[in-house]
């Protein structure tokens, strides 16, 4: 004769209505929802979070000739552009730590920038018209980034010239460091800064990407 422990249930015969009175089985039911319906649900949740000011950082990804780009924005403006080489997951994790954990995939906030990036890579745009949030840069680094936007499309400056324009002619290494840690590349064009001898220097996405961007702008 066998006995059954009442604390043990057979998952094949268990009635969800009696074992899941709290309704947590709804999560498993989502597997039966069409992908397009889940997409619409996500959009509605993102819009609701935005309306109720619960969304501090919205992000999306876009494809580009230099690889996938992560775009992130706060209500104040664009806060992060990350290349694939930097690691999108790592960039999002840092945003959650340094800006806010209330971060959500909400492409709509970044639609304008995505469109402008398409135009830029097609050679039809020379400047970006989006608000920028430079909270991830501070002190002299922020001053350097502010001056970078004055470097015209198709032109380059040296790190020495950039340091001088930023008010500290001897702070060449600090100017180079500001470029290397620029949180919003492309929009703030640190790729237009070279060494005094004309060599490329460095670039957070790699020198091949820097060459591609400079070639794009010189050909326009």
Automatic annotation (TrEMBL):
E.C. code: 2.1.1.63
Keyword Cell membrane: no
GO MF term (any one): methylated-DNA-[protein]-cysteine S-methyltransferase activity
Statement: the UniProt record of this protein carries the keyword Repeat: no
Limits of the Methylated-DNA-[protein]-cysteine S-methyltransferase DNA binding domain: 140-218
InterPro entries: MethylDNA_cys_MeTrfase_AS (IPR001497), MethylDNA_cys_MeTrfase_DNA-bd (IPR014048), MethylDNA_cys_MeTrfase_DNAb (IPR036217), MethylG_MeTrfase_N (IPR008332), MGMT (IPR023546), MGMT_N_sf (IPR036631), WH-like_DNA-bd_sf (IPR036388)
Active site: 190
Alphabetic keyword roster: Cytoplasm, DNA damage, DNA repair, Methyltransferase, Transferase
Location in the cell: Cytoplasm
GO cellular component terms given for this protein: cytoplasm
Main location: cytoplasm
Gene3D superfamilies cross-referenced by the UniProt entry: Methylated DNA-protein cysteine methyltransferase domain, Winged helix-like DNA-binding domain superfamily/Winged helix DNA-binding domain
Reactions this protein catalyses: a 6-O-methyl-2'-deoxyguanosine in DNA + L-cysteinyl-[protein] = S-methyl-L-cysteinyl-[protein] + a 2'-deoxyguanosine in DNA; a 4-O-methyl-thymidine in DNA + L-cysteinyl-[protein] = a thymidine in DNA + S-methyl-L-cysteinyl-[protein]
Gene Ontology biological-process annotations: DNA alkylation repair; methylation
Pfam families (alphabetical): DNA_binding_1, Methyltransf_1N
Region (Disordered) location: 1-22
NCBIfam families: ogt
Matches recorded under HAMAP family: OGT
Further comment found in the protein's record: This enzyme catalyzes only one turnover and therefore is not strictly catalytic. According to one definition, an enzyme is a biocatalyst that acts repeatedly and over many reaction cycles.
Similarity-based family: Belongs to the MGMT family.
Job description of the protein: Involved in the cellular defense against the biological effects of O6-methylguanine (O6-MeG) and O4-methylthymine (O4-MeT) in DNA. Repairs the methylated nucleobase in DNA by stoichiometrically transferring the methyl group to a cysteine residue in the enzyme. This is a suicide reaction: the enzyme is irreversibly inactivated.
Name the record gives this protein: Methylated-DNA--protein-cysteine methyltransferase
Source species: Georgenia soli
